[in-house]
Amino acid sequence: MRGPEPDGSGRLRVPLIVLMTTLVAGTLGYVVIEGWSVSDALFMAVTTVTTVGYGEIHPLSTAGRLFSIVLIAFGVGSISYVLTSLAATLFEGYVNQRWERRRMSQRVAHMADHYIICGYGRVGREIAAQLRRERCTCLVVDVAEAALSRATKDGYPVVEGNASEDDTLRRAGIVRARGLITAVATDAENIFITLSARALKTGLPIVARANFEDAVSKLRRAGATQVVSPYAMAGQQMARLAARPTTVGFVERLLEGSQGELLLEEIHVSAGSAIAGAAIGEARQRFAGAAVILAVQRGGQLLSPPAADLRIEALDTLAVVGSDRDLNTLAIACQAPIETPVGNGAVRTKDGLANVVRP
After folding, report:
1. SS3 readout for the chain
2. For the chain, N or C: smaller number of CB within 10 Å?
3. What is the band of 220 on the pLDDT scale with cuts at 50, 70, 90?
4. Cα 40 from Cα 33, distance rounded (Å)
5. In this predicted model, which residue has the larger pLDDT, 86 or 54?
6. pLDDT in tens, 319-341
7. Mean predicted lDDT score pLDDT of the chain
8. Cis peptide before 230 (omega within 30 of 0)
9. CB under 8 Å to 81, separation ≥6 — which residues?
10. Which CATH code fits 260-338?
11. What is the torsion angle, in degrees rounded to the nearest 10, for the CA atoms of residue 271, residue 293, residue 324 and residue 260?
12. Order of strands across the sheet that contains 317-323
């Protein structure tokens, strides 16, 4: 099994050791052969190894001259070894950096339906981890090299640049993105990022971080779909845990998917789906099984609990709790049918529940 690739300092270590060994051996040689002081011997060894040609500081004996010839040969070889290793390390580092940037750019260019996370500090890192647990694809945008290195090490594609700049967001694939989360350190940066993102994609869901209360309204005016204050949310959550620990714990386990077979999910209703136009009561009987439709998000209005005679419309979002099997059945009913030609002008319509052939 191959070991880890050496970094630049590791590759230069051996050549430098060879060069230093040559200098030490040359110094000791002049001390022993010529009887010079250590300072004179070191000076002579350095000038000989580097071939600068300052001349002899003391007359050399025949043995000293023969030793100098050998030292020059080893010295030139040692210096060449160091310079060659240094050039190779610098060139390879440059090539690897260019190659990695190109590979990352190609990876980002093919991403779609992903989340853009602006800022990879403590909050951004937790956001990315949670999205990964939700099996969502995400991409990190940051201007700090250390943050980008952490994100790359954690396995996320990255884009280097200021997220408030249009070019950076375009390189992050904002047109193809499913949503954007801005979690940088200052409210001013979050506002500018929100403004830029909203201008580039009108219908993009944007979740913004607000550190101070007065920034909440500004972020909403800038175009944020949701605004979250980590400090306020932490305080509210701690209060809820103290006042209603059982209920809050149950909901958290639902969201995490650790409450036995029960899951809490949101399902989007596509136009032309089997469930579009059906009443809530009818949908429960035909498609939901034992799953419970808790709420219906329609535009900016949240209908909870939904009345049994409420008609489900295309583009609604259903908040549902139930088993994985029941949720999958309901999700299929919310999908648009897929039509494929079967010949003679007939079309096979697959709605996930049955295949029918209609002329």
Report:
1. CCCCCCCHHHHHHHHHHHHHHHHHHHHHHHHHHHCCCHHHHHHHHHHHHHCCCCCCCCCCCHHHHHHHHHHHHHHHHHHHHHHHHHHHHHHHHHHHHHHHHHHHHHHHHCCCCCEEEECCCHHHHHHHHHHHHCCCCEEEEECCHHHHHHHHHCCCCEEECCCCCHHHHHHCCHHHCCEEEECCCCHHHHHHHHHHHHHHCCCCCEEEECCCCHHHHHHHHHCCCEEECHHHHHHHHHHHHHHCHHHHHHHHHHHHCCECCEEEEEEECCCCCCCCCCEHHHHHHHHHCCCEEEEEEECCEEECCCCCCCECCCCCEEEEEEEHHHHHHHHHHCCCCEEEEEECCEEEEECCCCEEEEC
2. N
3. very high
4. 13
5. 86
6. 888 888 888 888 888 988 755 45
7. 82
8. no
9. 15, 18, 19
10. 3.30.70.1450
11. 160
12. 262-268, 317-323, 292-298, 301-303
What is each CA distance from 355 to 271, 305, 339, 349, in whole angstroms? 18, 33, 10, 6
* Length, in residues, of the chain: 359
Per-domain residue ranges of the chain: 8-106, 112-233, 260-338
Q: Report whether 151 contacts 158 (CB < 8 A).
A: yes
Specify which residues 343 forms β-bridges with.
346
Contact (Cβ atoms closer than 8 angstroms) between residue 308 and residue 282: no
pLDDT in tens, 152-168: 899 999 999 999 999 99
For the ranges 90-104, 151-165, 286-300, the lowest mean pLDDT is seen at: 90-104
Topology of the domain comprising 8-106 = Helix Hairpins (1.10.287)
User: What gap in Å lies between CA 211 and CA 203, rounded to an integer?
Assistant: 25
Give the mean pLDDT of 53-69: 81
The pLDDT of residue 10: 62
Q: How confident is the model at residue 84 (pLDDT cuts 50, 70, 90)?
A: confident
